[in-house]
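Weekly puzzle thread! Below is a chain. First person to post its structure in token form gets bragging rights.
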Amino acid sequence: MLVGSTQKRMKHKLRIMETTDSQGNFLILLTNRFDLSCDEISEMYRNRWAIETFFKWMEQHLKIKHFYGTSKQAVHNQVWLTLIAFCLLMLAKLDANVEHSLLEIQRWRRL
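Winning reply:
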């Protein structure tokens, strides 16, 4: 399959694949990888989507404004500590059996 107009056409051929996601939704994937099977490419996209979803969740829930260090180890440490703090807040919420948000529980904890 070639993509683009006759004036600006891609130089390389692409492969179109049909697959389903984990919820059974139909997906069409376009790739230039001819060396992998359809199942391998589908699994690669599923794994990539899981990583994207995890980072989206991290942005929404962990509220890391900036990193205190620039090394790989410093970033890992900060992410792990933030995840631990989130889990502790979640355990406190479950233990207290309240319907309040984690933000409210964190504010109460600070007081």
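Puzzle host: Confirmed. Bonus trivia for everyone else. The two ends are 62 Å apart (CA to CA).
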